[in-house]
Amino acid sequence: MYFIENQSTLVNPHDELSFDESASIITSHVIRGIEKARRHKLPDVIIDFIRTHHGTMRVQYFYNSFIKSFPDQVPNEDAFRYPGPRPFSKETAVLMMADSVEATARSLAQHDAASLEEVVERTIRHQMEAGQFENCDITFRDLTVIKKIFKKMLASIYHVRIAYPG
After folding, report:
1. What gap in Å lies between CA 129 and CA 63, rounded to an integer?
2. Is residue 72 helix, strand or coil?
């Protein structure tokens, strides 16, 4: 119920929490996912995907909300970060990118080709600038191919078509 896609009512439980409490709840899904995977005896290679799918990124929404609400305070950045580690293989990096791109695309008001392309570019650029891919053997060529595939998939999901004249 703390994830917007799981909310079936107009009540958002985050409205009653502080921004750092909300961030903690959101980031805890990684630890809880690892615990659940271990309980079900999933292989370590699968657990690695769970551990790294957010790397050490910030929960940007709640971080930005904190800054906007308390401009004179310095936030504890660790309170708004996922526990990591950062992805350490091409495959775990691709999962991180796919998860973030999909979630961000879902939040768009308009799903046209330009906005979907911008989401892919901005999301992956942000992850790169945050150093999330420094521990994995991924190349710029790989990133170009990945972004092209993501753009094509999003266009397919949202049925983006060219505008017909007149």
Report:
1. 17
2. coil
For the chain, percent of residues with pLDDT exceeding 70: 87
What residues form DSSP beta bridges with 58? 81
Residue 18 pLDDT class (50, 70, 90 cuts) = confident
**Domains in the chain, number:** 2
Answer yes or no: are the C-beta atoms of 152 and 103 closer than 8 Å. Answer: no
Measuring CA to CA, which residue among 92, 147, 143 is closest to residue 118?
147
Separation of first and last alpha carbons in the chain: 45
**Distance set, CA 80 to CA 9, 27, 88, 93, 163 (Å):** 26, 8, 22, 21, 41
User: Considering 41, 65, 83, which residue would you say is the last residue of a domain?
Assistant: 83
Domain boundary among 31, 65, 83: 83
* Placement of tokens 């909310």 in the chain: 7
- This prediction has a pTM of 0.86
For residue 19, which amino acid is it? F
CB 52 within 8 A of CB 96: yes
Report how far residue 55's alpha carbon sits from residue 132's, in angstroms, rounded to the nearest whole number. 6
SS3 assignment, position 152: helix
